[in-house]
Amino acid sequence: MSSKRFTIFGDPVEHSISPRMHTFAIEGLGLDATYTKTRLEGACRLRTIFLESFDGANVTVPHKEAAFGQCDEVRGIAKEIGAVNTLINEEGNMIGYNTDAEGFYRSLQDFGEIKSALILGAGGTAKAISYILKQKGISVTLLNRSAKRLESFEGFKTYDWEHYKSSYHDIIINTTSAGLLEETLPAPESIMIDLFSHCKYAIDVIYNIETPFLKKAKTFQLPVKDGADMLLYQGVLAFALFYHDRFTFEEILPFMKKAFSPS
Length: 263
Ligand SMILES: NC(=O)c1ccc[n+]([C@@H]2O[C@H](COP(=O)([O-])OP(=O)(O)OC[C@H]3O[C@@H](n4cnc5c(N)ncnc54)[C@H](OP(=O)(O)O)[C@@H]3O)[C@@H](O)[C@H]2O)c1
What we know:
Blueprint (H helix, E strand, L loop, with lengths): L3 E7 L7 H11 L4 E7 L6 H8 L2 E4 L4 H7 L2 E2 L3 H4 L4 E5 L2 E5 L1 H9 L8 E5 L3 H12 L3 E6 L12 E4 L10 E4 L14 H9 L3 E4 L7 H8 L4 E2 L2 H15 L6 H9 L6
Parallel strand pairs: 1-2, 1-3, 4-6, 7-8, 7-10, 8-9, 10-11, 11-12
Antiparallel strand pairs: 3-5, 5-6
Helix pairs in contact: 1-9, 1-10, 5-6, 5-9, 9-10
Bound molecules: NADP nicotinamide-adenine-dinucleotide phosphate.
The site of NADP nicotinamide-adenine-dinucleotide phosphate has 26 residues, from α6 and α9.
């Protein structure tokens, strides 16, 4: 069998931990494959480059929606989300999947039962998470800084900050990038206090740093977690797709997990 070639498409892509995660899995499972980074400023040549050179790929910011539009076929929940983060080359056809959604859902397994969720933000990650939670029977409300992006969340309860109404949710999920580069909360402090006073758990999709969102949630004695498991699990699910389910989630997981330990 010939050596397989995988990559991650994005811009920027230098910081991505995906090559490290996938390389640990390739080596750990004794496979003949490489996983590289491909920085693409625009996405217009993504499909051509992918089909000419790769067996599988991941897609990160800002190309997930463009990659969706270039697929020959999109499978699973990615069809509803409108964005793909995993590509498979099936005999010259580009097949798209979204493993961010299932990866996030699996990361909730450390918490107790969840029936209702409030998502902060209305970008691509909020979309993936809202659709998977809805599919799993969880009631979803979205709260965003501005109204515009909420328009694409048809069938969900949505509020912008100005029209926020207090109510109970089992979990508060931060999908905004607030806290990534500056010490800011994802909504005004009065709203955050109200949200954390009426919930059981809090999760941030940002990983590696303790955001102001997580710090604040802890002051309410809430069980919290960051986005590291979401990132890990979406990678495991993508790897399983790369190898057409030859390896189970549990077989891949311990190798990929090593990428999160200091080298
Ligand atoms: N752990 C993982 O595996 C994983 C996977 C994917 C993404 N992520 C993380 O998820 C985050 C969001 O990514 P995305 O692609 O969904 O972003 P995006 O599409 O650009 O959406 C950003 C959203 O955040 C809101 N926002 C941005 N800055 C804000 C601020 N200072 N205060 C309040 N709201 C703010 C925006 O509101 P407006 O509409 O008002 O502009 C928008 O709704 C990033 O930090 C990314 O690193 C993590």
